[in-house]
User: Fold this.
Amino acid sequence: MTVLVLLRHGESIWNKENRFTGWTDVDLSPKGVDEARQAGVILRNKGFIFDLAFTSVLIRAERTLEIVLDEMNLKGVEIFKSWRLNERHYGALQGLNKAETAKRYGEEQVAIWRRAYAVPPPALTKDDDRFPGYDLLYKDVNRNDLPLGESLKDTVDRFLPYWQDSIEPYLRKQKRIIIVAHGNTLRALVKYLDGVSEEDIVKLDIPTGVPLVYELDDALKPVKSYYLEK
Assistant:
């Protein structure tokens, strides 16, 4: 049996401010740092050890992983970073306060943008400063692959090939892996692993800073999954 741990980064500054974050590269809040530390303590106390770690290129996920490994006293863990593990791109909504956006566009419309599986938010234009093509983090990524806005379906489509090509092969070699990423990329993976329907996945929330453990059989199908509490 293979064990995989998923962890959503700790609370970010914009999580705290109730803003659409997406690919905006904001840091952890003080609470988020504490959540990351607590996750590391829990994993250490439960006896977890990792050979490899995967995370996005966004600082809130990278820093969460760094804190977790430090709390676990794990050195030399090989870390892979990919933009394909980034949060869902919220397009023209990025940076906006969620409550103020609901007042402007109506709660029903914002709920559709946030929760409908295949409906993307209003898109950026490529001359918008928020377009990832202007960010040096993505200088090696084909500009045509960089999103102007994503639905959850788009996030699934962006993430799954990376899972299948870059993570699954290590799991088949019995490597002990932790993935530290974001609410929507982890929902994409949960949808795939558990076969969650499009209707049900939009209702699923993954809490910040709480390790989610998957026990997988030889075919990498879940035997069981559970959150680790104190």
